[in-house]
Automatic annotation (TrEMBL):
Organism of this sequence: Oncorhynchus kisutch (Coho salmon)
Residue span(s) of domain PHD-type: 201-260, 257-308
Coiled-coil features, chain-numbered ranges: none
Pfam families linked: PHD, SAMD1_WH
Protein name: K(lysine) acetyltransferase 6A
Record's keyword annotation contains Repeat: yes
Gene that this sequence comes from: KAT6A
């Protein structure tokens, strides 16, 4: 007779895994045993036995890296190498970026190519099979609208029937584009200091090349996500050389792990997250300073990277801003009474 895990013990172990991850630590056997013992008084031998049984029946996921074992909740695996199926709603910004980077066609990709690429992705296929309301026709329509919106927001360029990602260039053409070299040096935020960094994966997630050989068969250093370890060549990520230098100095997150650098949340209003063209950090529109009401077009620099205005200049700007606010008319102007003599 096959012995199965006790559902109650499995629940306790999953709670322990969640608790350990909240403490920004790796859910190892030792930490899981300590957490379950402190919360429920279960002895170490029983915890390890139930943990192994839970792994066998698939209710807990076991991940090994360089001889170290970690345990994850299959329903919420966190930042694994492949994006998990999302049955809530699709994040079109991430899907469009992933497809155009994955196709990597020099002149751009057609709507049909993007749609075919996405339908072959595991998370999209799972979403389409699990969502009865999202048929092929509706998926095509929503993708077309999402591409149109991405073009309007300056993320994607359209040339005839071809779509391509707008490269994060730092060249100034006199149209208001900011030269990255003119900005202050990037610095770690308080919550990023002393934060653990994941073991880098020495393979590019886009072209499957290494630092010795990128998509063009040339040597190129990899940039690795501090959260999950996934790596990518700057050329595959569409990073300019200046942006690459700035990103390497930061606690960088890939597109799948990206959280808002202000509220440190990922799921809240994911579609309204902006990516700074100076440091690649993410910010919700409402978390910007000042909050943004609509997506900016073209290049956008976050409040962390913008040059700080000092002294009298800042004081004059704030005073003018307050003056404009109080001088603005409230509602409809009142009709002036004309005296009749």
């Amino acid at each position: 007779m096959v012995k199965l895990a006790n559902p109650m013990y499995t629940t306790w172990i999953l709670e322990a895994i969640k608790k350990v991850k909240k403490q920004k630590q790796r859910p190892s056997e030792e930490r899981i045993c300590n957490a379950v013992s402190m919360s429920h008084g279960l002895d170490r031998k029983t915890v390890l036995e139930q943990l192994e049984l839970s792994v066998k029946d698939g209710t807990i996921l076991k991940v090994s890296n360089k001889g170290l074992n970690s345990y994850k909740d299959p329903e919420n695996p966190g930042r694994l190498a492949f994006p998990k199926p999302c049955l809530g709603r699709l994040d079109w910004n991430k899907l469009i970026k992933r497809s155009l980077e994955g196709l990597h066609e020099p002149g751009g990709s057609t709507l049909k190519s993007v749609e075919r690429f996405l339908k072959c992705q595991g998370d999209v296929a799972a979403y389409l099979s699990g969502s009865g309301s999202m048929g092929p026709g509706l998926f095509h329509q929503q993708l077309r609208v999402a591409l149109k919106r991405a073009c309007a927001h300056g993320r994607v360029a359209k040339n005839g029937l071809l779509f391509r990602l707008i490269s994060r260039s730092s060249q100034s053409d006199g149209t208001g584009t900011v030269v990255l070299d003119s900005l202050p040096p990037v610095r770690l935020l308080p919550h990023e200091k002393d934060k653990p960094v994941a073991e880098p994966i020495p393979i590019c997630s886009f072209c499957l090349g290494t630092k010795e050989s990128n998509r063009d068969k040339k040597p190129e250093e990899l940039i690795s996500c501090a959260d999950c370890g996934n790596s990518g060549h700057p050329s595959c990520l569409k990073f300019s050389p200046e942006l690459t230098v700035r990103v390497k100095a930061l606690w960088w997150q890939c597109i799948e792990c990206k959280t808002c650098s202000n509220c440190q949340d990922q799921g809240k209003n994911a579609e309204n997250m902006l990516f700074c063209d100076s440091c690649d950090r993410g910010f919700h529109m409402e978390c910007c300073d000042p909050p943004l009401m609509r997506m900016p077009k073209g290049m956008w620099i976050c409040q962390m990277c913008q040059p700080r205005k000092k002294g009298r200049k800042l004081l004059h700007e704030k005073a003018a801003q307050i003056k404009r606010r109080y001088n603005a008319p409230l509602g409809r102007p009142k009709n002036r009474l004309k005296a009749n003599f």
